[in-house]
Write a structure and sequence with these properties.
Distance between the termini: 19 Å
CATH class: Mainly Beta
Shape: elongated
Helix content: 40-55%
Number of domains: 1
Structural class: alpha+beta
Number of strands: 5
Number of helices: 4
Oligomer: single chain
CATH architecture: Beta Barrel
CATH topology: OB fold (Dihydrolipoamide Acetyltransferase, E2P)
């Protein structure tokens, strides 16, 4: 009897990849804030969205246009032609806005909890319950 189904193994693999990606994002954010160069840029365009769509502002630095991700409330604080303090990541050629309280660890903890739950042998327990209900 199989303990894990193919779908459950696929879900476990996706969650593990998510954990690694989450840690990569956390490390990239902290490295940029610690060693990145600070810029005070002028906002060219503002895209503030509510809900699940991410908000951003458009800036022009180093002869290129960049989009800096912000949450909706902060995005509204930076209208067009206002100055925004951002950090530049040389390795990824991107700008990052420093927040007061970075919540990247929450994402990693959530994925680790999902990993623990997904690792339980659900198909084994379901088959036992089905046998118990049939008798």
């Amino acid at each position: 009897m199989k303990i894990y189904s193919k779908n459950q193994i696929g879900i476990i693999i996706i969650i593990v990849l998510g954990i690694f990606y989450s840690e990569y994002l956390n490390r990239k954010y902290h490295e940029t804030i610690e060693s990145g160069k600070i810029y005070y840029s002028t906002v060219l365009k503002q895209n503030c969205h509510s809900g699940r769509i991410s908000s951003n502002v458009k800036i022009f630095e180093n002869n290129k246009e960049y989009y800096v991700k912000l949450d909706r409330n902060r995005c509204e604080n930076y209208p067009i032609n206002s100055k925004i303090k951002i950090f530049y990541n040389y390795e990824n050629d991107e700008f990052i806005f420093k927040v007061n309280k970075y919540n990247g660890k929450r994402r990693t903890v959530f994925l680790i909890v999902l990993f623990a739950i997904s690792f339980l042998p659900w198909s084994y327990w379901i088959s036992k319950l089905e046998k118990k209900n049939c008798s």
